[in-house]
């Protein structure tokens, strides 16, 4: 790489930034379309967790290519790290709450690892709760204490 | 560059509108929480597009802050998600609300009417104390 005009690299970086920006906006739109069109809670959660994050990462990469300053790039890396760290947490919490409040259809799942201990049946499992807790008079759907893990 | 920025802005704005549609339509509070999460991330993308166009770096701390706190809403909402009545997406009918208020005061068996059994059964058991813990 010898004797290249600095303006060339600026142009190349801007072009790559434009491509990344268009791709990121496209993925963001795809996530929005999936959010409206998908039929169930878990499918909508999928669109928000995966294509949305990918589109956001592409948009931030485009911004990093466009501003070309190391302090800005450091903050953008921080944004990406936060997104990658927090979106699985949010998806996990939403999915668990959806499962426990009966918003997940069993027939929709390929593999239901929580079938053995569904939220409402904890009282029937003597090994999970303390033996003294499950009195026969308690309602079957369970008060909040029986569902605590 | 201008054409790419305009196209990206249109796409991101359309994504935000679709997320708003899901916020309005979502059958449960968890759907709305997910859609609000998507709306926050779309807002981050919109600010990024604006910064790409103007080459400003002053708005990047906004992106950091939004990405830090954006997931708190959905986590909080799912933390306190309760069992909701099935089959209704918007607000409840006034008579349903009144019936539910009465069942919380008086004993359930008396005020439960035949037509509203299916609507009210989940809320009777899980109404305010049925939050998901842990």
TrEMBL record, chain A:
The organism's place on the tree of life at top rank: Bacteria
Keywords of the record: Membrane, Transmembrane, Transmembrane helix
Residue segments, region Disordered: 115-149
Biased composition (Acidic residues): 126-138
TM ranges: 15-36, 48-67, 73-94
Family statement: Belongs to the CPA3 antiporters (TC 2.A.63) subunit G family.
Name of the protein in question: Multisubunit sodium/proton antiporter, MrpG subunit
UniProtKB/TrEMBL annotation, chain B:
Location relative to the cell: Cell membrane
Pfam name, any one: MrpF_PhaF
Name assigned to this protein: Multisubunit sodium/proton antiporter, MrpF subunit
Transmembrane segments: 34-53, 60-82
Region Disordered, annotated ranges: 82-134
Family in the record: Belongs to the CPA3 antiporters (TC 2.A.63) subunit F family.
Sequence ranges of Acidic residues compositional bias: 120-134
Family annotation (InterPro entries): MrpF/PhaF-like
Organism: Isoptericola hypogeus
Ranges of Basic and acidic residues composition bias in the record: 82-95, 105-119
Keywords: Cell membrane, Membrane, Transmembrane, Transmembrane helix, Transport
